[in-house]
Amino acid sequence: GLSPELMGLLLELLGTYPSSPSVLWAADLFFTTVRQQETLRQDFLKEDILQGVFPHLQPNLSCPAGKVRLLTLRVLSSFKVELPEQEAGEDLSDTRESVFLSCLQAEETVPTVQQYRQ
Fold first, then answer.
1. Is the pLDDT of residue 89 over 90?
2. What are the start-end ranges of the H helices in 17-83?
């Protein structure tokens, strides 16, 4: 099963090989599994884990390889990011998405001429 030791190994691999598609794919599988199991979410999807892994993955967000960007965003979007409270008077939707989820949706959009024009 999923254990803290496996998580530690995965975080070590992400720190050492942050742009490796194989490591990113493994991290995506791990965090997707964690996200789907309620009991594991609070243990593995903590903000301090995101803060530890983000500096290693941040350069991937501007990587020319689309697969690396996509896998990186899938990993990062697994974490629940606490957004700042809205200021009074701002009329924004109550359903605020994670910035990583928004970027993931944009990355998953198939580029067509029509999409480009919009």
1. no
2. 21-36, 38-44, 47-57, 66-76
Token pair of 60 as six digits: 């991937």
Instruction: Please write the tens of the pLDDT for every residue from 1-11.
Output: 778 899 899 99
SS3 content of the chain, % helix, strand, coil (to 5): 65, 0, 35
Which residue, chain included where needed, has tokens 């999923």? 2
Residue among 82, 18, 80, 84 nearest 54 (CA): 18
Please list, in sequence order, all residues whose beta carbon lies within 8 angstroms of the beta carbon of residue 71, skipping any fewer than 6 positions away: 21, 24, 25, 27, 28
Q: Which residues of 99-109 are buried (b: 16+ CB within 10 A; e: fewer)?
A: ebbebbeeeee
